[in-house]
Amino acid sequence: MAFKTIKDLGDLTGKTAVVRVDINVPMQDGKVTDATRLHAVKPTVDAIAAAGGRSVLLAHFGRPKGKVVPEMSLKPVVPALADVLGRSVGFAELGDDLPADDVVVLENTRFFEGEEKNDPELAAKFAELGDVYVNDAFSAAHRAHASTAAIAKLLPAAAGETMGAELKALENALGTPVKPVVAVVGGAKVSSKLAVLENLVEQVDHLIIGGGMANTFLFAQGMDIGASLCEKDLKDTALTILSKAKDAGCKVHLPSDVVVATEFKAHAANETKGADAVSGAEMILDAGSATVADLAEVLKVSKTLVWNGPMGAFEMEPFDAATVALAKAAGELSEAGSLLTVAGGGDTVAALAHAGVKEQFTHISTAGGAFLEWMEGKELPGVAALG
């Protein structure tokens, strides 16, 4: 995964960098309610400034579908971004004269129909704004858009600081990992992560399947899963994945014991029993303690962990127990330096935050779709354009 960095662009004195960022932040009453993505921009803007340059930021906001939607303007983000960057931040429409601020935010790239069509003419207009191009938006790297792909062909291009750190972490996790490699894949449905599972069985030594997805695999193996969430029509698909894993030398880990309840709600009356002892109105809502203990041992003998998705219905206590316990085990090993830990996906970030281990993991990606497509083994257009 070869890519240039800002340092490779050389002296930027008197030059402007066109920087693709992700500042698609949550807003309420015109105010930013979570500045996490704004903080991710700062290392790149600082690096460009240190090299003598200034930054013009390209970003999308929401899904205006090629039309101007005032409620999706990036202008309200500017004050919060200025506070985070500690620099003067201006705002401009495409075609306007750029203000003289240290940083300029350009209006929502998705206001232009050509953005999502990877239109070379729109990309050329973006390119006219500066001298070099920097992509710092891994979360948008799985889309071949004018601001992520076509523009990279028109200017000297490099990865930003946050993007570069992400790519290095992903390379260490699945590109050239230290083995043994273990992957945790959880969530509700197998159908949403088929390509992920099919790729991982060829890449990892251990595959831990949790959440509702595990129910489909238990069912495929002939077990009664009661009233649990299950994609019964994917029985053959699940068996095929298990067969591919066996052929590839990948050991698949499914729950040996489970936590069941007859109501899908927090603090519902529950019972832990063997995965082969579920019946009737019982729903599997979490993995049991014996399963977690076994999986913790798998983590101990592994060197690299890739995690996407929870082990159970982690949003509801006490069905968050397996996710929290396994996350804590991974966090402790990571902090001790014996396990490289890379995680991503919306539910995953929330689950690891809930477990209190975000700071212990080696790298946590906030990119949803891009992280999943990377796990599927797909080439990401926004990354490929930097090669």
What's the gist of this structure?
This protein has two domains: 156 residues, Rossmann fold (3-Layer(aba) Sandwich), CATH 3.40.50.1260; 199 residues, Phosphoglycerate kinase, N-terminal domain (Rossmann fold, 3-Layer(aba) Sandwich). 32% of the residues lie in helices and 18% in strands.
Written overview of the protein:
It is a single chain. The protein is an alpha/beta fold. The protein folds into two domains: 156 residues, Phosphoglycerate kinase, N-terminal domain (Rossmann fold, 3-Layer(aba) Sandwich), CATH 3.40.50.1260; 199 residues, Phosphoglycerate kinase, N-terminal domain (Rossmann fold, 3-Layer(aba) Sandwich), CATH 3.40.50.1260. The chain contains twelve helices and 17 strands. It has a six-stranded parallel β-sheet. A six-stranded parallel β-sheet has the order 11-10-9-15-16-17, sandwiched between helices. α10 links the parallel β16 and β17. α1 crosses α2, α8 runs parallel beside α9 and α9 packs across α10.
The CATH homology group name of the largest domain:
Phosphoglycerate kinase, N-terminal domain
Structural class: alpha/beta
The termini sit apart by 8 Å
- What order do the strands of the largest sheet run in, or round the barrel if closed? 5-6-4-1-7-8
Number of β-strand runs: 17
Write down the domain tally. Answer: 2
CATH-defined topology of the largest domain: Rossmann fold
- The number of helices is 12
